[in-house]
Write a structure and sequence with these properties.
Elements: E1 3-7, E2 10-13, E3 18-25, E4 33-39, E5 46-51, E6 58-59, E7 68-73, E8 78-83, E9 92-99, E10 111-112, E11 116-121
Length: 122
């Protein structure tokens, strides 16, 4: 069982940057594939970045490719999402997640952090 606690959201202007942090407890995050999702009001939750179990592969949908970077520091049991060149449409509640196995990068994730609000203003 993994508990995830996220932090780092807030209000930022268009073109700005934010880094989200998610700290794990209960198990080693290095044994899990990890991902970040977001959900905007009235929309389905969507994946924005994923990192596989070894840390050697990443996945980004077109909407975040080149602007977002997912990373994981196993020694700190922590994962990150660096978001650059933020746009209005990036406004959403963001969630960190992890899973010990299964399909990657999509498929169900087993463990979830609490939501982190990110608001991008013009």
């Amino acid at each position: 069982q993994v508990q995830l606690v996220g932090s780092g959201g807030g209000l930022v202007q268009v073109g700005g940057s934010l880094r989200l942090t998610c700290t794990a407890s209960g198990d080693q995050i290095g044994l899990h594939a990890v991902a970040w999702f977001r959900q905007a009001p009235g929309k389905d939750r969507q994946i924005v970045a994923a990192l596989n179990w070894s840390g050697g592969r990443t996945y980004y949908p077109d909407s975040t490719k080149g602007r977002f970077t997912i990373s994981r520091v196993n020694a700190k049991n922590t994962m990150y999402l660096q978001m650059n060149d933020l746009k209005i449409e990036d406004t959403a509640v963001y969630y960190c997640s992890a899973k010990p196995g299964g399909d990657w990068p999509l498929g169900p994730y087993d463990y979830w952090g609490q939501g982190i609000q990110v608001t991008v203003s013009s």
